[in-house]
Amino acid sequence: MLTSFFAPASQPPLGIVIVGAGTVGGSVLDVLRENAQTISARSGRNIVVRAVVVRNIEKARTRLHPDMAGLLTDDWQAAVQRPDAEVLLELMGGESTAKECIQAALTAGKSVVTANKALLATCGDVIFDAAHAAGKPVAYEAAVAGCIPIIKTLREALAGDTVHEVAGIINGTSNYILTAMEKDGVTFADALEATQKMGYAESDPSLDIDGGDAAHKILLIARLAFGAHATMNDVPVVGVRDFKLRDIRYAAQFGFCVKLLAQAVRRDNGIELSVQPTLVPCTHPIASVDGAMNAILVRSAYAGETLYYGAGAGAFPTAAAVVADVIDIARGNGALAQHGNGTPLPSLIPADDCSAPHFLRLRVLDMPGVLANIASALAQQNISIEAIHQNESAPGQEVDIIMLVHEASRGKIFSGIKQIENQSTTVGAVVTMPIKRFL
To answer: Is 217 tagged catalytic?
Structure first.
């Protein structure tokens, strides 16, 4: 039996039910078994697995440790109701059944640990309301940035501080792609294929490369940092699917690297949220975060800037975060999700009102007056040009023009771009990215 792996502890054992024994769930079981004595010593309780819920019991037997055989079941409803289990680990993914499972566990008076960022981002209000009604925690460190303890940092380490900004790289697949394009000079298609071969990207990578995964995570961060109850419709999202190698090279000419940056920023008029490829100064530590790694910068009133770096995905980094949440609950430290009770909910700044300096790449016919017409279109939106670069070309040929413009609202930037694209000398669409100049 699995219990034979656990050393005696000073408190009664903590029974858990694990729903989902795939890549993450199987790794959690491995961590609990291989690190049992340390976990017991640090939590003061033996962590005892009471049931492991899987879709296919026979298939699971071939993948999991032999000691799991007697714990496997395909009946999650019965497993959740077990009186000898205090904690549910929801590791199945998806939304519908996972939501039902978590709600049933909370109703039964059990604590919950989950890595399900998509579910919490879309159904967080319902789940956290149920948690408050039950007086039980929903812990989700593994849902954001893998083993980086950003949830614990915001919930505990900075509990007495005022957070002004959280910004970072929180999708390893997109960061690996951009790094490969920058370092190896490969195209987006080749970089994506490499991530799939290495297991960083799914066969359908849409959630990663279109920015949805990062958006789910920044919604959870914004809820915890600011009490912001935002939805996916509140986050302007631009992924890396259509990203071009030449834009990385042009950005480098101005001293910038390009990262898919997720941001939640407190402004005087509300909370600003975004996920989009962003120019970052090459001298900033976030610019050096390469491959599938993640990094999150937090800026707060008293602690100033703090930076957190580590593996943002992967079976064992995620499993380590799940087990850490279980240990917190075993210690009695499980915290209820922050709801901002007693304080007004912050307003959300509309995407078009969010302001930043921007990078623009235009493809135009090299003719007299082209630059003047572009500058005029921007000036009509009160946008001033900071720097400009034009490649050499013969008169009448197509040429790229790269501009850095001073801070302006997204709405004005897009209005200026529309005017430029309507000019007869403009070829194709204008590419734009915000510039992040850290304080």
So the answer is: yes
